[in-house]
Amino acid sequence: MTASDTLYKTVNQYNKEPISAADMQRLTELAQDYCSVKNYVYQRYGGIGSLSKLYPGYTVQNEMTASGLRKQLGMPSVHFYCAVFDALGDIKSQWSHTKARVEKNIRENENMTPEDRHYLRFVMKQSQCLEAVLLEREPLLAENWRQPYEEVRATVQDEHRLQQYLRRQIRRQLKKMHTETADGFSVTQKGYRYADHGIYLSDICKVSDKPLVLMIDEIDSAANNQVFLDFLAQLRGYYIDRDRSAAFRSVILAGVYDIKNLKRMFRPKDQHKTNSPWNIAVDFKVDMSFSAKDIAGMLEEYEKDQSTGMNIEEMSELIYEHTSGYPFLVSKLCKLIDEEVAGQAAFPEKRQAWTYAGFTEADKILLREKNTLFESMINKLLDFPELKDIVYSILFTGKEISYNALDPALGIAEMFGFVKNVNGAVAIANRVFEMIFYNLFLTSAENQNTDIYKAAIRDKNRFVYAGHLNMELLLERFVEHFSDLYGDCTDRFKEEDGRRYFLLYLRPIINGTGNYYIESRTRNMERTDVIVDYHGEQIVVELKIWRGNAYKERGEKQLAGYLEHYHLKKGYMLSFDFNKKKETGVKRHVLGDKVLIEAVV
Question: What pLDDT does 235 receive?
Fold first, then answer.
C-alpha cells in the first residue's frame, strides 16, 4: 500500500435510532453550559492576577468547585470539570504564545544589554516572579529561586525600567479570551459508555468505503489484563470470519512488547515461553529513529523562530551522535537546551545555549533526571537477569558479542531497544543509554563499598584548580591506590576489572560537574578510550592492556591520531601491565606536537 493509496479518516459512531427531540435538547443545553463554564474560566483566570494558579491547576479546580457555578447550571460534574480544564489549557497556550512574542521583542530590542535580556527572561520563566512584577509587587519566591533571582537582578542597572517595559509588553500581547462556540463538548472515559457495553466493530468496518486499520496504544500496561486478552481474541475472531462479516484490514499494537512476546507478561513462569499465542503477526520494520538530517530539519524550523545563530549541522550531528536518533532523547535534549540551559548564568541567551558547551550541560541534566524511560530501563534489567549480564559484559569486559537474531537474550535486549547490530556485533543502542547503564552499575551498593571508590571520595577535591581537571595528577593517585589495593591479585582479575576500577575512581571525582563516555569505535578486549568532558574541556584517556613495547608504540600513534581528531595537544594512556618486572608510575612522552602522559599499573 503506497502513501497515495492510504486514506486517513475520522470514524464517527452514530446511534442506531435517531436521537429524540428531548435528548437533543438536553445535549444542546449541555453544550451551551460547557461554553458558559469556559467563558467564566477565561474571565476569572485569564488575566495576570491568576498566573500562579495555572500550574498545575488544582487551585483553579478547587475554586471552581467552591464557586457554586456547577450547581447553578445543574451540570454533571464530569462535563463541568472537562470544561474547566479545557479552558485552562487554552489559557496556558495563550500565555505561551504571549511569552514567545514578548521574548522575540526582547531579543530584537537593540537598546538592551545582554544582562537586561537575561533578567527579563529569568522573570518570565518563573510564574510567581512574573506575576509579582506585573502586579508591581516584590516577588516572594521559594528558597531555591530567591538567591538566583537576587544574583540576576544585581547585574542590571535599571530594574524599574525593565519591569515597566515587561508590563507594557505583556499587556499589549496578552489577548482576552472568549468563545461563542456551543456546538459540542468534551467527555472523559467515565462520562460516556456504549450501549450494551460493546463497540460495534463490524458495523464500523462495514460502512467504511476504505479498509480500516485499528491502532491500540499502551499495550504494555494492558497486556496482563484478562479483559484486554479477551478483546484480542475477539479481534482474531473477526479476522478469521472476515469473509462473512466486515473486519479491520489489520490491527497495530503499539508498545515495547511485540505480539510474539506479550506472553512473557501474562503466562505463568512454569509454562512454555517459546510458543506464541498468535501466529498471524507480521514484524513492523519501519525505522522510527531520526537521522542527523531529520534532526537538522527540526532545528532549521526552530532557528527560523528563535534566530539563535547556532551551527545547525554541528548541533544535529552532536545530538545524533549521543542519541542515535532515539526520538524521546532527541526531543528531551532540545527541550533542556531551550528551557533549562538557556537562562543560566553561563548561558544567559539562547545563542550561547545552542553550542557544544550548552549541549554538554543539557546532557548532564538529562543523566541526572528521573523519568519513566530511564526507570523502565532499570526495571527491565531487574526483570531479566540475562539482559543485565549482556549489558554488563558489553560495558566492562570489552568482549565482542556476535549478533545472533535467534539468541533469546539478545532478542529481549533488541526488543527493548537497549542494543543494536553494528556490523555483526552487539553494541549499546546509544551513548545516553550507555551512560545510564554505567551509572547504574558504578553506583551500586557493592561498588560504592569498594576501597577504590572510597579512595576517590577522599581524593576528589585534589584534582581541580581554576575550573580545570588535572588528569595527570588523577592518574598518579589512581596508580598508587591500584598498586596498593590490587597489586597482588591475579592477572585475570585485573584484565576483567581494571577498566571498571578506573571508572569507579573517575566517576565520583567529576560527578555533577563533568561527563564521561566510552568511545564505542575503540572498545575491545585490549583497548578502551574514555572521553571526559569537564567544564567544556575534553580529555581523552586510552585504557590498554600491555602487550610489549612494539604494541605500546603502535598504541601511542593511535592515540596521537585520536587527539588530532579531537583537536587536542595532550592525551593520556593508562596501561595495565601483567609483567612481574613491570615499572609502574606516570611518564611523559613527546610524539611530534603531541604530549602523551602514560600511567602504568
Answer: 77
Helix count and strand count (H, E) for the chain = 26, 12
Give me the sign of the Cα torsion angle 218, 219, 223, 228.
positive
Q: Quick check: bond before 139 cis, omega within 30? A: no
Q: Which three cell numbers stand for residue 351?
A: 545563542
Rounded CA separation 537/357 (Å): 9
Distance CA 482, CA 578 (A): 13
Distance CA 75, CA 104 (A): 42
- Cell numbers for 164, please give them: 515597566
Rounded to whole angstroms, what are the CA distances from 406 to 41, 287, 403, 409, 420?
Answer: 58, 20, 9, 9, 14
Closest alpha carbon to 529 in 483, 492, 568, 490: 568
DSSP β-ladder status, 594-600 and 570-576: parallel
Cβ(529)–Cβ(565) below 8 Å: no
Helix (H, G, I), strand (E, B) or coil at 214: strand
Q: What 3-state DSSP class applies to 172?
A: helix
Q: Residue 123: CB partners within 8 Å, gap ≥ 6?
A: 129, 130, 133, 163, 166
State how far the Cα of 555 lies from the Cα of 26, in Å rounded to an integer. Answer: 81
How far CA 107 is from CA of 121, 337, 346, 561, in Å, comes to 10, 17, 18, 42
Identify the bridge partners of residue 253 per DSSP, sorted by sequence position.
216
- Compute the distance between CA of residue 507 and CA of residue 515 in angstroms, rounded to an integer: 8
pTM assigned to the model: 0.60
**Comparing C-alpha atoms, which of 337, 340, 301 is closest to residue 319?**
337
The residue type at 408: P
Residue holding cell 581554576?
466
Read off the amino acid at residue 520: S
Query: What are the beta bridge partners of residue 529?
Result: 519, 542
Q: Dump pLDDT digits (tens) for 510-565.
A: 876 788 887 765 555 456 778 888 887 888 888 877 666 655 666 667 777 777 77
Identify whether the C-beta of residue 431 lies closer than 8 Å to the C-beta of residue 321.
yes
- Grid coordinates representing 546? 600491555
How large is the greatest C-alpha to C-alpha distance in the chain, in angstroms? 99
Estimate to the nearest angstrom the gap between the alpha carbon of 266 and the chain centroid.
29
Question: How far is Cα 260 from Cα 275, in angstroms, rounded to an integer?
Answer: 8
- Residues of the chain with confidence (pLDDT) below 50: 1, 190-191, 193-195, 197-198, 267-277, 492, 525
C-beta atoms surrounding 483 within 10 Å = 14
- For helices 327-336 and 312-323, give the axis angle rounded to 10 degrees: 130
Query: Quick one: cell of 450?
Result: 569498594
